[in-house]
């Protein structure tokens, strides 16, 4: 069970129910999609496996602090996003 998806799904479904109950002019139309999406995420979260452990970069590499791309250690600028890496 992936607890983060279950909590997110429950929160979204309750928010959709609140939108439905309050019947506010703009958000009322979003009540059903929020409820359905919340229930979908809740069900997916119950059956999804929990992620385990920390992701490590390959030997000799580090992750870009901005986009997460694997970079050679000592690289000053990311090729993908152009972010300057801390020293």
Query: How would you characterize the largest beta sheet?
Result: 2 strands, antiparallel
Outline, from the CA principal axes? elongated
Counted beta strands = 2
**Number of helices in the DSSP assignment:** 2
Tally the structural domains.
Answer: 2
- Classify the helix fraction into a percent range: 40-55%
- What Rg, in angstroms, do the CA atoms define? 20 Å
Sheet with most strands: strand arrangement: 1-2
H/E element sequence: HHEE
**End-to-end gap:** 39 Å
Strand content: 5-15%
- The secondary-structure class comes to mainly alpha
The averaged pLDDT comes out at: 92
Taking pLDDT < 50 over at least 5 consecutive residues as the criterion, the unreliable ranges are none
Structural summary, described in words:
The chain is mostly helical and 87 residues long. The chain has 2 domains: 3-47; 54-87. The protein is built from 2 helices and 2 strands, in the order H-H-E-E. It has helices at residues 3-22, 31-47; strands at residues 61-63, 70-72. It has a two-stranded antiparallel sheet with strand order 1-2. Strand 1 (61-63) and strand 2 form a beta hairpin. The two termini are 39 Å apart. The mean pLDDT is 92.
């Amino acid at each position: 069970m992936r607890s983060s998806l279950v909590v997110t799904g429950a929160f979204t479904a309750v928010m959709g129910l609140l939108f439905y109950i309050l019947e506010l002019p703009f958000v009322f139309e979003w009540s059903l999609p929020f409820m359905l999406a919340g229930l979908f995420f809740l069900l997916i979260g119950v059956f999804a496996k929990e992620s385990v452990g920390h992701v490590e970069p390959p030997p000799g590499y580090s992750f870009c602090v901005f986009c997460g791309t694997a970079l050679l250690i000592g690289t000053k600028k990311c090729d993908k996003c152009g972010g300057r890496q801390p020293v």
